[in-house]
Amino acid sequence: MFDEDELALDATDILSNGRNKHNLDPDAGYGYKTDKERFHGYWAYFVSGTTSEIARSSWVLPANIHQSNGAMILFNHLEKRDLCSASVMTMDGAFDDKKCYSRNIELGLIPAISYNPKKAKIKHFNYLRKSNWRKIALGREGVRIRNLSRTKRSSVERYQSTFKDILKGRVVPVRGLKKVRKYILFTCILSQLIGKVNWIKIHKRNRFSSLKLNKFI
Q1: Using 50, 70 and 90 to split pLDDT, how confident is the model at 36?
Q2: Complete DSSP assignment for 99-117
Q3: Which CATH number belongs to the domain containing residue 151 in this structure?
Q4: What predicted TM-score, i.e. pTM, was given to this entire model?
Q5: CA-CA distances (angstroms) from residue 134 to 142, 157, 210?
Q6: How far apart are CA 72 and CA 157, in angstroms?
Q7: Is the dihedral of CA 109, 114, 116, 117 positive or negative?
């Protein structure tokens, strides 16, 4: 199932249980989904396969911890696991920093990370100089693979969509980091089962279509 998988990492915002500002979850934190959109809760992190769309690792941290720091924990998880044939890790601009690049390379993965220009004058990755640390870290072949792989992050977004459907939104009904982690883990396992069933259905359908086509030929 994982033989054709590359990897994609993303974080989704989980709102804390308790909208009343006087009754907030004490373990949760304030984070920013965008520069102007703040929320109180947690980040749920997922590494999923780009073909199987099944989570290979997950974790939960308070939202006030920056996503790039949270990613380090998932990299530690992956270090202890068989990555099969995976050679690329696709990530969005929230993870565009030196430590995420470095950790991917240590794991033998090409970091296909969306460029986050922030306050930089150069707004597009392709216009960066060859001396830029990102292009030096990737190398010429890594840059080519990165540009081909960035669209595969949609797999982890589809996984998160299934995850949120099970969660019925983004609000967890429990309070406290330990309870939230257990709840998210249960939801993650359930969404993996759904993902596996969907994967089997798709491959059976493709195989059946191939057999019909061969018979017709």
Answers
A1: confident
A2: HHHHHHHHTT-EEEEPP--
A3: 3.30.420.10
A4: 0.80
A5: 10, 24, 42
A6: 20
A7: positive
